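User: Structure with zinc ion, tokens only please.
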Amino acid sequence: MDAKNYPRMEEEILKYWDRNRIFEKSLKNREGCKKFVFLEGPPTANGLPHPGHVLTRTMKDVVLRYKTMKGFYVARKAGWDTHGLPVEIEVEKMLGLRNKQEIEEYGIERFNEECKKSVFRYEEAWKEMTRRVGFWINMDNPYITLENDYIESVWWSLKEAWKKGLLFRGYKVTPYCPRCGTTLSSHEVAQGYKEVEDPSIFVKFKIKGKDEYFLAWTTTPWTLISNVALAVHPEEWYVKIEYEGEKLILAEERAAVLLKGKEYNEIDRYKGSELEGIEYEPLYKFVEPEKKCWFVILADFVTMDEGTGIVHIAPAFGEEDYEAGRKYDLPVIQLVDLEGKFKEEVKPWAGKFVKDADREIIEDLKNRGLLVSEHKYSHQYPFCWRCDSPLLYYAIESWFIGMSRLREHLVKNNEKINWYPEYIKHGRFGEFIREARDWALSRKRYWGTPLPVWVCQKCGKEICIGGIEELRQKAINFPEKLDLHRPYVDKILLKCEECGGEMKRVEEVIDAWYDSGSAPFAQWHYPFENEKVFKENFPADFICEAIDQTRGWFYSLLAISTLLFDEAPYKNVLTLGLILDEKGQKMSKKARNYVEPAEIFQKYGADALRWYLISASPPWQPKRFYEKVVKDVLSKFLLTLWNVFSFYETYARLDDFDYGRDAVKCEERELIDKWILSRLHNLIKNVEEKMEVFEVHKAARAIEEFVIEDLSNWYLRNSRKRFWSEERSKEKMAGYSTLYEVLTSVAKIIAPFTPFIAEKIYLEMEKGESVHLCDYPESSKEMINEELEERMETVRKIVEEARALRAKHGIKLRRPLKEIIIVADKNLEEFAGLIKDEINVKNVVFATEDNQFMEEIAKPNYAKLGPKFKEKARQVAEAIEKAGKEIRKVEIDGKEYELSEEDFIIEKKAKEGYAVGSVDGITIALNLVQTPELIAEGFAREIVRRIQEMRKEMNLEMEERIVVEIDIDKEKLGEWENYVKNETRSDEIIYKRQPEGEHVKEWEIEGEKINIGIRRK
Ligand SMILES: [Zn+2]
Ligand SMILES: [Zn+2]
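Assistant:
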């Protein structure tokens, strides 16, 4: 198998799994075992899956397969998130509807019908991606948030909240999307902040009856239309100044900042509290306010960080403003409609979207001489995460879940959760829940779980319905065929228990985040049925989604479970980083900056994509994703493993090796066999430790290092000779036994990560039905030999160093060297053969002293010589260098000088003809002497390599015989001619000036141009 047909291998495995129902069997296999409960975060199938979804599905699958192999029963129920505005928006676009009025004209019934259809538009694409990536999840029996059973469970939970007084109607300034016509919950708002540039203006408010002004600052000029007060901080100091001929009042501290370097006179100074109640003339008066307004109020939220220390107050558009307004009983002047446009009372700008009116309002103020200055201001402003419209803060009626009252419980329950990575627990998430706001639950929309509150049309009594049976009992007109969606549910009228009047449902539906957050119980239709199942599956052991769910699903799950059960709904949560493109940009459908997953599967396969996503970085870190990285994984890791396997396959088959019959006992195997088995068992231990804490990337990297470095680059390379030998020797059988054990274990180890190649190797080697029905390998202490591993590590370092020494002296590895001398304090003699082969030396000599290749020399100690010999110092130094270490006196200009031991330093130096290096306190020396025999052998190896390459270029079969012509003298190969012939399967070597053949090529070997010609025999 090569890169090209890898994906085809995967397709065949997929078919094999389907045909043999391997997934089902993997579950059946573990029936009755300890449960590992997984809760699937439901995706929405009204869009195509993108690489981010591939990431979440891969990570979930790795963990779930791993736990299954570790002996747990891991049920996997799929889920679909089906309600909510994103669905409505898609349908609006499709039908060409522009706003709610047009939806209602089109008809809620037909509109919702379209929504329902669209939810599963891409279900097939999702199923196909899920199957292709190898994610084993039960998609035949998913939970679906739009089903009556699911909705009924959600209703039950809402009634529980109602009973506790935690579901209530309120008037509150909430973030509002004028395009979608709905409020957003705080966790939704948190998702859509963007850096924007807004106008920043300083505006004058004229004090009644005086030629003096309050100076205020705002970045939302359109809210000035609804201004009712100015707020100052009671404890801060304010000044009246004369500036450019005008009298202005502002905070002292701010004046110093804003007017720095400018000329102004301070006329007066007040404590903020002294300003309370001072009246001013309104900037705009489009309606007559029903209460007293336009005076100075006191507020603690006024800061000295920006602006003038005087804050303009519009209770219709700000949470703090609204609260302050309640305190001072200020009117709410709401002159903006629900589409974010000025109402008709605002004559000059009626019908205009408020933010679009900013410019004209500024011009108007300027013309009236009320604008002091104007700037641009960059800040973070919230946008609708669905439709990208700027949000407005808006006093609006809404239904709330009183989460702010449950803060302590949220914090307490969060303590029971293991977060991966840990810092989210008290960081991003912890901070969020400590400040939890009331959950603005209702949406004045159509496609969602209807809020089950009915209101009496006569006496105003409100009741909450907690289930279908309750609804049936109270209904006047319970329908035959029940659909809990709008508009059907709206038609059901109840009878008021207080006054006998008719009760109608309020028109709101609820936030879809509440739906998905109800999954732990609603997926089982709890409490109406499946009580036992629910209890067995709550709380979940494991959930895993992208990091942007921190304030989304992770929060809604905890919020609802805290409300209902005062319990954390999951024990472990693995958060995943975002997927970025090659340049580190966020992937988006708009920018189309990603390759379709389907295309990657087709070209490189799912294993490669999975392995990249798993091993590239910690799960919670962002990952760059593009074609090349996947391609690299395939060649670097997967095909390396495959090549080791196919090497084994080829040779074991040639020798008719049968593990059951021919296996050699461990004790009787070669040292390197014992070593690779020790490494294997260390790997298993390591992987287990990492998987326990979801450090899947570390597990993957350990596996990769084992396969590439230990198994392929070291073990196999150094065992090849054994397998090439003709006879069926014991060493050879020991090698096969070892390779068999290692490869079958590796297949199991990688099964959760790259399930396809794991299965392929397993099925080729074992008689079992599937690697995914196996137990995960256990690490055996007896197999681990740390001492052996340590010595082998030293050997590898010695080899590395010796190769570096060769490179430094320009001697290629193909040229054999006479010997290496190793001065080590540990026993490495058993590895002599290995070292010999690896660094191509004729002899490995172990020594206790380095005197064979090192000599001691004397070096002048300039620090001493200078003061002692003054101007003669240089001559003394030269004499020392010449004389060597035995020197005791020098003669300069006929005069003799005594030397003390301090005058020179004894140093060690490599003798001529040796290259010396050291690793881990071990000294090694390569004897660089070049004899004609060694040169000829090296040359012969160079020739062999060239001929092999040419054979490859000619596409010759392994066994095919050739005749070689070459333009060198026969003496140059000397006694190595036979070696060349054997290695290259040449019958004859002809030495002639102009070589001929089917393939003739000029090579440069050791600086010499050499022509080689080859023809088939
Ligand atoms: Zn919107
Ligand atoms: Zn009533």
